[in-house]
C-alpha cells in the first residue's frame, strides 16, 4: 500500500497517494513509514502535526523527526505563538496550542540525571553514617567512634551484595575516610576524657 | 617554641605582604634564584626582629630552616608567579598553619569543664575553617597580581577565522518584563554584526497578554531572524523555558547564547566570541556581565563594583585553570555539549553555573574573555540586591549538594566519566564553600555576644583563655586581609579609597542574606526565594529599614552587648571585646545603611517589572527562626558550660603554649638575654598563682587576676568556683574578613 502511495505521489496523483497513506496508517498504526508519508502528503498543517506527533511517540530520538517537527511547529507558532504545558516524558513535551491541538515535541537532548535522585541509592545509608561520623567531631568526636564503624560495616554490606569494581573502590574510600574520622574522633575523645575526669 | 615560631611566622607574613602590596606586585619577571634570594631576605628580616626580641638563635635558625624549605617548595610549585607572590603565599600559609596549631594547643590544654571544652573545640574548628577560607581569597588575589605568565588570559576579541560563521541561536527568556526594556534588548540584538544567527524570545507565564503581545509584535517587525513563543503554565521557571527553547532551536544552530531581557548587547558580541568554537573541545565561552545606570547613587555604584570583583578578579583566575563558571547572559555555549549533558537543570536555581560544571565534567574546555560586550540592569534597591544574593547563594549550595561527590579528590576512582581536573574540582568546591564564610561570621557574632553577656554577669567566659597571640594575631590577620581586600578593589577597579571601602561594605552588608540562604540551601529540597517583610502603604524610608530589620537588630545587639561589657567591667579585655563586636556589628549595620542609600536613589528610568523569584517563597522572618534556634541552642549550651565549675589546675596544662608578653614583642620590655633562652611555660592569661614566681613573665597589659564578685546575676546562680582562681576568660578571635564574591 505504501509503495502504491509512493508511486501515485511520483505520478502526480497526490490525492490518491494521500488516501493510500491514510489507509496505511489505519492498517498499521505502528508503521513509521506510513506516518512519515502521510505527514508529507497531508494538506493541512494540523494533520501534519498529528502525524508528527505519532512519529515522535513511536521514535522520539530520530533526528529527521526533530527537523520536521521544528518546521511544522515554526509554521504553527508564526500563526499564534501560544503553547501551554500539559506534561512531559524524558523524551517528549506534550503541549497544546491555543486551539487545543495536542503536540508531542521531542526534546532532542540526553535525558537529564534526575536530582534529587529517584529511588534510594544502596549507598545512601553508608553516606548517612559517614556524615554523622563527621558531624560527631563537633561533639568531641564521641559520636564519631560509633558512626565511623557503622559506615564501614554498611559499606561492606552494600559491596557484598553487588560485586563491581566501582563498588569496591567506593567501599575502600569510605573505609579510609571512616578510619581517618575515627582516628580524629579518638584523639578528640581522649582530650575530652582529660577534661571530663578533671571536672568531677 | 610554638608561640615564638608563630610570632616569627607572623612577622615574615607581615613583611612579605606589605612589600608585595606596596610595589612587589609590579615585578613582571621571575627567576628561581631571585625568588630564593627574596625568600632569604624576608626570613632574615624577620629573624633580626626575633633575635632582638626573643634571643634564642638556635630556635630561630631551626624555624628559619623550616620556613626556607617550605618557601622553596612553593617557589618550585608556583613557577608562573613573581618572587613576591611566591614568598607572600608561603609565609601566609605558614603563619596560618602555625596559628591553627597554636589555637588548637590552647583549646586542648586549657583547664575547662567538659561542656566548655566541647564549645571551645567547635569554636576552634569554625575558626580553622574561616582561616582556610581566608587563605583561598589570598591565593586568588596573589594569583591575579603576582602571576607573570598567563597561559589563557584574554581581554580582547578572538581573532576572526575566515569562513567560520556557525549559526548561533540567541535565547531571550522573559517573564513579566516591561515591553520597553525587552524592546531595547531586541533592537540591540538586531544590530549584531554577525551573518548567521537567530533570536528566540521565550516568554514564560507572563500573565498580562498585552505585555507579551507587544513583544511579539516587535519580533515580527524585526524580521525573520526573530522568533517569539509564549509558554503558558510552564514548569521549571527560567530553565524550563530555556530547555524548551533548546528544543525549538533551528536545527542548523551550533551555538546557543542566553541573553537576559534587560541587556543592551554590543554589535561585536558574536563576532568576538564565536571564533573560540572553532576548537571542537570548547564547551562554552563567557564574557563579563556589565551594568548600566549605576553612577547616580553610592549604593548602585558600590553594588556595581561588587559585581566587577567577580568578573575582574575571580573569573580571570579561574580561567587560567579552565575552571570558569558559565554565567548565562553574555556567554555562548555549544549546543551539542548542552544536549549531551541533558540541557539546563530545572531543579537548580542557578542553572547556568550548574550546567557549566556538568559540561566541564565531560572534558570540555571553557574560555573567559575579559571584555564587556553588553550591559544590563542591576537591582536598584537593597531589597532587590538582597534577594538576588540569596538566590545566588542558594543556587551555589544546591550545586554543592548535587555535585559534592564529583568534586572530591577520589571522584575519578568512582566515576570514570568524570573528567574534572584537580583545579576545576578545587575552584568549584571552594566557590561553594566560600558562601559559608558568612555563616561562620554569624557564629562568631554569637560567640562574641556570649562573651560579652558572660563578662557582664560573671566577669569571665569559660571557652578558652585570651592569650596574647589570640589577641594580636587575629587582629593582625584581620587588618592585613582587610587591607589586601581593599587594595585589590582599588587596584583592579581603579577606584578611590572611599569607593573601595563602600564596595567592600556592600559585600559585607549581605552577610545575613547569605547566612539565611546557606541554611535554607541545606534544609530545602527545592528552590526557594526570599520574601522580605512588607507593610502596605509605608514610606520608602520605612520600607528600606524594614527590609533590613534583622541585620539592624543583630548589629545593634552586638554593639550594645560589647559596649555594655566594657562599661560594666572596664578593662583591656572587655575593651578589646567591644572593639571586635563593633567591627562585627558594622558588617550587619551596613545593611540598613545601604538600604537607606538605595531608597534615596533617584527613580530609574527603566526597571524590571518582575522579581526573578522562583520556587516557593520563604518568609525572611521564618527563615531567621532557624538561625535563631541554632543561636539559642549554642547560648543554652554555653550557659550550662558556665554553670559547671571549671577544674583545678590539671597536669595537662603543662602542654599549653608559652605566653610571650606583648611588651617584649614591641621592644617595650627588655628581658636580659641570659633569661631569654629559658622561657617558661606559663599557663595562659590569668592564672598567675600557679606560675612559679622565679620563672613567670609579667603580663603588663592584663589586669590583676582578681575576680570581682558578680554584680548582677538576676537569674543565674553565682559561679561556684573559687573566686581566687578565675577560669580563663575568652573573647573569641575575630575571623578574617569575609569576602563573598
Topology diagram in text:
The complex is a heterodimer of chains A (200) and B (741).
Chain A: H1 2-10, H2 14-27, H3 32-41, H4 45-58, H5 63-79, E1 82-88, E2 92-97, E3 102-106, H6 124-136, H7 142-161, H8 165-199
Antiparallel strand pairs in A: 1-2, 2-3
Helix pairs in contact in A: 1-2, 1-3, 2-3, 3-4, 4-5, 6-7, 6-8, 7-8
Chain B: H1 2-21, H2 32-54, H3 57-77, H4 83-109, H5 114-146, E1 167-174, H6 179-190, E2 197-204, H7 209-222, E3 226-232, H8 237-247, E4 253-258, E5 264-265, H9 269-273, E6 282-286, E7 290-291, H10 298-320, E8 331-334, H11 335-340, H12 351-361, E9 365-368, E10 374-376, H13 382-403, H14 411-414, H15 422-433, H16 437-457, H17 468-493, H18 497-508, H19 511-523, E11 528-531, H20 540-546, H21 549-568, H22 572-599, E12 616-619, H23 620-643, H24 662-665, H25 673-676
Parallel strand pairs in B: 1-2, 1-4, 2-3, 6-9, 7-10, 11-12
Antiparallel strand pairs in B: 4-8, 5-10, 6-8
* Percentage of residues assigned to helices of chain A: 55-70%
Radius of gyration of chain B, whole Å: 28 Å
Largest sheet of chain B: 7 strands, mixed
Strand order of the largest sheet of chain A: 1-2-3
* Rg of chain A, nearest Å: 31 Å
Instruction: Write down how many β-strands of chain B occur, each being a DSSP E stretch of 2 or more residues.
Output: 12
Shape of chain A: elongated
Largest interface: A-B, 39 and 49 residues
Class based on secondary structure composition and strand pairing of chain A: mainly alpha
Quaternary arrangement of the chains shown? heterodimer
Label the structural class of chain B. Answer: alpha/beta
Q: Tally of extended strands of chain A?
A: 3
N-to-C SSE string of chain A, H for helix and E for strand:
HHHHHEEEHHH
**For the residues shown, what is the average pLDDT of chain B?**
83
Short structural summary:
Chain A is mainly α and 200 residues long. Chain A is built from eight helices and three strands, in the order H-H-H-H-H-E-E-E-H-H-H.
Which structural traits does this protein have?
heterodimer; A: 200 residues; mainly alpha; three-stranded antiparallel β-sheet; 3 strands; elongated; B: 741 residues; alpha/beta; Spore Coat Polysaccharide Biosynthesis Protein SpsA, Chain A; seven-stranded mixed β-sheet; three-stranded mixed β-sheet; 12 strands; globular; disordered C terminus
Amino acid at each position: 500500500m505504501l509503495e502504491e502511495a509512493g508511486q501515485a505521489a511520483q505520478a502526480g496523483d497526490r490525492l490518491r497517494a494521500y488516501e493510500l497513506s491514510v489507509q496505511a496508517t489505519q492498517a498499521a498504526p505502528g508503521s513509521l513509514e506510513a506516518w512519515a508519508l502521510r505527514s508529507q502528503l497531508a494538506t493541512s498543517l494540523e494533520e501534519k502535526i498529528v502525524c508528527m506527533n505519532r512519529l515522535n511517540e513511536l521514535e522520539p530520538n530520530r533526528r529527521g523527526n526533530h527537523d520536521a517537527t521544528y518546521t511544522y511547529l515554526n509554521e504553527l507558532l508564526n500563526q499564534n505563538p501560544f503553547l501551554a504545558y500539559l506534561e512531559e516524558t524524558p523524551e517528549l513535551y506534550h503541549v497544546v496550542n491555543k486551539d487545543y491541538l495536542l503536540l508531542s515535541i521531542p526534546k532532542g537532548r540526553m535525558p537529564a540525571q534526575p536530582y534529587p535522585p529517584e529511588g534510594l541509592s544502596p549507598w545512601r545509608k553508608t553516606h548517612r553514617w559517614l556524615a554523622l561520623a563527621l558531624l560527631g567531631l563537633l561533639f568531641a568526636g564521641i559520636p564519631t567512634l560509633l558512626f565511623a564503624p557503622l559506615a564501614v560495616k554498611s559499606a561492606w554490606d552494600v559491596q557484598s551484595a553487588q560485586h563491581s569494581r566501582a563498588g569496591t573502590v567506593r567501599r575502600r574510600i569510605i573505609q579510609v575516610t571512616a578510619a581517618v574520622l575515627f582516628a580524629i574522633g579518638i584523639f578528640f575523645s581522649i582530650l575530652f576524657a582529660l577534661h571530663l575526669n578533671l571536672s568531677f | 617554641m610554638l608561640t615564638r615560631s608563630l610570632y616569627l611566622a607572623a612577622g615574615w607574613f607581615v613583611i612579605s605582604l606589605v612589600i608585595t602590596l606596596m610595589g612587589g606586585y609590579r615585578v613582571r619577571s621571575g627567576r628561581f634564584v631571585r625568588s630564593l634570594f627574596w625568600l632569604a631576605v624576608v626570613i632574615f628580616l624577620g629573624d633580626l626582629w626575633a633575635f632582638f626580641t626573643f634571643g634564642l638563635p638556635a630556635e630561630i635558625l631551626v624555624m628559619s630552616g623550616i620556613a626556607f624549605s617550605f618557601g622553596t617548595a612553593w617557589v618550585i610549585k608556583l613557577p608562573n608567579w613573581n618572587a613576591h607572590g611566591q614568598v607572600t603565599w608561603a609565609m601566609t600559609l605558614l603563619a596560618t598553619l602555625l596559628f591553627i596549631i597554636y589555637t588548637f594547643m590552647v583549646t586542648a590544654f586549657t583547664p575547662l569543664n567538659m561542656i566548655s571544652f566541647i564549645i571551645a573545640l567547635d569554636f576552634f574548628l569554625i575558626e580553622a575553617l574561616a582561616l582556610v577560607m581566608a587563605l583561598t581569597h589570598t591565593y586568588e588575589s596573589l594569583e591575579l597580581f603576582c602571576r607573570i605568565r598567563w597561559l589563557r588570559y584574554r581581554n580582547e576579541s578572538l581573532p576572526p577565522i575566515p569562513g567560520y560563521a556557525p549559526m548561533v541561536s540567541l535565547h531571550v527568556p522573559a517573564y513579566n518584563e516591561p515591553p520597553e526594556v525587552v524592546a531595547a534588548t531586541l533592537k540591540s540584538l538586531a544590530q549584531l554584526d554577525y551573518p548567521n544567527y537567530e533570536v528566540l524570545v521565550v516568554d514564560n507565564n507572563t500573565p498580562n497578554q498585552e505585555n507579551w503581545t507587544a513583544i511579539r509584535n516587535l519580533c515580527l517587525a524585526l524580521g525573520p531572524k526573530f522568533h517569539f513563543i509564549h509558554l503558558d503554565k510552564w514548569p521549571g521557571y527560567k530553565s524550563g523555558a530555556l530547555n524548551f527553547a533548546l528544543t525549538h532551536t533551528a536545527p542548523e544552530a551550533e551555538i546557543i547564547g542566553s541573553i537576559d531581557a534587560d541587556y543592551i548587547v554590543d554589535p561585536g558580541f558574536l563576532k568576538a566570541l564565536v571564533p573560540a568554537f572553532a576548537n571542537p573541545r570548547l564547551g562554552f565561552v563567557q564574557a563579563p556581565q556589565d551594568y548600566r545606570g549605576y553612577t547616580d547613587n553610592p549604593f548602585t555604584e558600590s553594588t556595581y563594583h561588587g559585581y566587577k570583583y567577580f568578573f575582574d578578579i575571580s573569573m580571570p583566575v579561574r580561567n587560567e585553570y579552565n575552571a570558569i563558571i558559565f554565567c548565562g547572559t553574555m556567554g555562548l555555549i555549544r549546543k551539542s555539549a548542552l544536549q549531551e549533558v541533558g540541557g539546563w537543570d530545572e531543579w537548580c536555581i542557578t542553572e547556568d553555573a550548574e550546567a557549566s560544571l556538568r559540561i566541564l565534567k565531560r572534558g570540555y574546555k571553557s574560555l573567559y574573555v575579559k571584555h564587556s560586550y553588553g550591559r544590563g540592569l542591576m537591582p536598584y534597591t537593597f531589597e532587590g540586591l538582597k534577594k538576588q544574593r540569596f538566590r545566588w547563594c542558594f543556587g551555589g549550595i544546591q550545586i554543592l549538594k548535587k555535585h559534592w561527590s564529583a568534586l572530591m579528590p577520589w571522584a575519578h576512582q568512582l566515576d570514570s566519566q568524570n573528567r574534572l581536573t584537580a583545579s576545576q574540582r578545587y575552584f568549584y568546591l571552594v566557590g561553594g564553600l566560600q558562601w559559608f564564610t558568612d555563616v561562620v561570621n554569624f557564629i562568631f557574632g554569637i560567640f562574641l555576644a556570649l562573651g560579652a553577656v558572660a563578662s557582664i554577669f560573671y566577669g569571665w567566659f569559660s571557652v578558652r583563655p585570651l592569650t596574647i597571640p589570640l589577641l594580636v594575631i587575629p587582629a593582625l590577620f584581620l587588618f592585613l586581609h582587610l587591607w589586601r581586600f581593599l587594595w585589590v578593589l582599588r587596584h583592579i577597579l581603579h577606584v578611590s579609597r572611599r569607593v573601595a571601602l563602600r564596595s567592600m561594605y556592600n559585600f559585607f552588608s549581605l552577610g545575613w542574606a547569605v547566612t539565611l540562604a546557606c541554611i535554607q540551601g541545606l534544609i530545602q529540597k527545592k528552590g526557594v526565594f526570599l520574601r522580605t517583610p512588607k507593610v502596605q502603604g509605608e514610606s520608602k524610608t520605612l520600607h528600606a529599614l524594614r527590609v533590613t530589620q534583622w541585620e539592624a537588630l543583630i548589629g545593634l545587639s552586638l554593639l550594645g552587648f560589647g559596649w555594655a561589657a566594657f562599661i560594666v567591667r572596664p578593662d583591656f579585655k572587655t575593651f578589646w571585646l567591644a572593639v571586635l563586636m563593633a567591627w562585627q556589628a558594622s558588617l550587619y549595620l551596613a545593611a540598613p545603611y545601604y538600604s537607606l542609600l538605595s531608597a534615596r536613589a533617584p527613580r530609574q528610568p527603566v526597571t524590571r517589572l518582575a522579581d526573578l523569584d522562583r520556587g516557593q517563597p520563604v518568609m525572611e522572618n521564618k527563615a531567621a527562626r532557624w538561625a535563631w534556634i541554632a543561636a539559642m541552642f549554642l547560648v543554652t549550651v554555653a550557659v550550662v558550660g558556665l554553670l559547671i565549675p571549671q577544674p583545678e589546675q590539671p597536669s595537662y596544662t603543662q602542654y599549653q603554649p608559652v605566653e610571650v608578653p606583648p611588651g617584649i614583642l614591641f621592644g617595650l620590655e627588655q628581658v636580659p638575654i641570659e633569661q631569654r633562652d629559658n622561657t617558661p611555660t606559663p599557663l595562659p592569661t590569668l592564672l598567675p598563682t600557679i606560675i612559679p614566681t622565679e620563672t613567670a613573665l609579667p603580663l603588663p597589659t592584663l589586669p590583676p587576676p582578681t575576680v570581682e564578685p558578680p554584680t548582677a546575676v538576676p537569674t543565674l546562680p553565682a559561679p561556684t568556683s573559687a573566686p581566687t582562681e578565675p577560669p580563663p576568660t575568652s573573647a573569641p578571635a575575630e575571623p578574617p574578613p569575609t569576602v563573598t564574591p
